[in-house]
């Protein structure tokens, strides 16, 4: 696909001026069969699966900015399938299997690295909960392995095992989990969709959704009106705003999630590591930077930047887990807009408007869900029926209270509130 060692060397020596675009940049047509609002990982994956798996020919992906400028390029790149609840467990297992084949399928180096994720626990109660989660993962057909402290000290000796406040009691490793290059995932799906005839329209913001008699007819954009028989909304943290154009109020709050990267360092962190006593997680990129993040900024916001108190909180958690991180210089930070549902699980469903579909509410799980989300949303748009691994992601569960999927178990009465 136009790549070779000689080509890379030649372009490196001549200013990289000979590369050609990986996908077309067409002007929008006046009408499509299917319009996907949102050119992030989920939107591009949806368009790719619609074209490849179902043979759809007249599809447009509308992105208000540039490809890779949203959450798909603003995350900590973690890929995993260690969910507990029935419904989530099957979905993320399906997604991880697709991650394992994504580079072959797209013929694009997404830099998938199954380095393993270690989830630490720091008390008897956390140990019991982790064992229960591990058994659930194994029952689903995936793998989980418990690690004792001596084993952890050999694998991750740079952690603070003597912290009196947060002693490390052990951990669980999912060896098939890991990371992928976020930008490459967006580029790979964009190129794949384009090769199957999808029009990817950048700098095309949707400003309205046309509905007549309860049926979607198309969208209004900054580049003109576009008619469509079916419209899919998949815009992450902007879901509430775009759905409002169709008169819908979603059970969504948008919050900022910050992430950070340090200067390049020699290889030290071989895994993804999750701190059990604070929402902190860390891995090391192929360029050597330590990539880490923590909790949401706990107020609603559409800003793609965070605040200093949460930055301080994340740094404190990092120092408690791994004191050596204090010697590293932070190069940059960024924020992604998380579309948070009340039960922490996503929505993939039809709306009450004929021909209008919604894919949202990914909370912390958006990047790792990209392959399966696109697969399931494409299935829904094409057939009108939910994919078997996404049957629990109904929108009306928030109206009826039936089928709520509280992954953290923090509701007043788990799964019944």
Radius of gyration equals 22 Å
Known CATH architecture of the largest domain: 3-Layer(bba) Sandwich
Please mark out the parts with pLDDT under 50 across 5 or more consecutive residues, or reply none: 412-417
- Mean pLDDT over all positions: 93
The biggest sheet amounts to: 8 strands, mixed
Structurally, the number of domains stands at 2
Helix content range:
25-40%
The percentage of residues in β strands lies in 25-35%
- Overall body shape: globular
Total of DSSP H or I helical runs spanning 4+ residues: 11
Q: Give the structural class.
A: alpha/beta
Number of E-state strands: 18
What's the CATH class label of the largest domain?
A: Alpha Beta
Measure the end-to-end span.
52 Å
CATH homology superfamily name of the largest domain: FAD/NAD(P)-binding domain
Series of secondary-structure elements, N-terminal to C-terminal: HEHEEHHEHEHEEHEEEEHEEEEHEEEHH
Key phrases:
eight-stranded mixed sheet, globular, alpha/beta, 11 helices, D-Amino Acid Oxidase, Chain A, domain 2, FAD/NAD(P)-binding domain, 417 residues, 18 strands
């Amino acid at each position: 696909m136009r790549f070779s060692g000689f080509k890379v060397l030649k372009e490196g020596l001549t200013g990289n001026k000979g590369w050609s675009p990986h996908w077309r940049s067409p002007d929008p047509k006046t009408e499509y069969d299917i319009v996907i609002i949102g050119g992030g990982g989920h939107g591009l994956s949806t368009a790719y699966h619609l074209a490849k798996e179902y043979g759809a020919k007249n599809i447009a992906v509308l992105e208000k900015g540039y490809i890779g400028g949203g959450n798909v390029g603003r995350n900590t790149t973690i890929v995993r399938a260690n969910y507990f609840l029935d419904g989530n467990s099957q979905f993320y297992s399906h997604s991880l299997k697709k991650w394992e084949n994504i580079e072959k399928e797209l013929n694009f180096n997404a830099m998938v690295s199954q380095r393993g994720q270690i989830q630490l626990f720091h008390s008897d109660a956390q140990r019991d909960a982790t064992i229960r989660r591990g058994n659930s993962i194994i029952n689903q057909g995936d793998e989980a392995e418990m690690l004792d402290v001596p084993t952890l000290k050999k694998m991750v000796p740079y952690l603070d095992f003597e912290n009196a406040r947060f002693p490390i009691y052990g951990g669980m490793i999912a060896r098939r989990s890991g990371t992928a290059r976020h930008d490459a995932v967006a580029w790979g799906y964009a190129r794949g969709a384009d090769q199957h005839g999808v029009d990817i329209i950048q700098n095309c913001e949707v400003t309205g959704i046309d509905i007549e008699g309860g049926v979607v007819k198309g969208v209004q954009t900054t580049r003109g009106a576009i008619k469509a028989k079916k419209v899919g909304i998949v815009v992450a943290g902007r879901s509430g705003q775009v759905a409002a154009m169709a008169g819908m109020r979603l059970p969504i709050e948008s919050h900022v999630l910050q992430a950070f990267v340090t200067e390049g360092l020699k290889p030290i962190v071989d895994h993804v590591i999750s701190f059990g006593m604070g929402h902190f997680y860390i891995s090391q990129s192929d360029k050597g930077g330590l990539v880490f993040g923590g909790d949401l900024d706990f107020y609603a916001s559409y800003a793609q930047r965070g605040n200093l108190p949460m930055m301080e909180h994340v740094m404190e958690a990092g120092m408690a887990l791994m004191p050596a991180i204090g010697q590293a210089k932070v190069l940059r930070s960024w924020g992604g807009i998380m579309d948070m549902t009340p039960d922490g699980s996503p929505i993939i469903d039809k709306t009450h408007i004929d021909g209008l579909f919604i894919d949202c509410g990914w909370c912390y799980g958006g990047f790792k869900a990209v392959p399966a989300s696109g697969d399931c949303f494409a299935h829904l748009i094409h057939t009108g029926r939910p994919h078997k691994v996404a049957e629990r992601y109904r929108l009306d569960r928030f109206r009826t209270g039936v089928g709520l999927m509280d992954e953290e178990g923090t509701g007043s009465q788990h799964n019944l509130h």
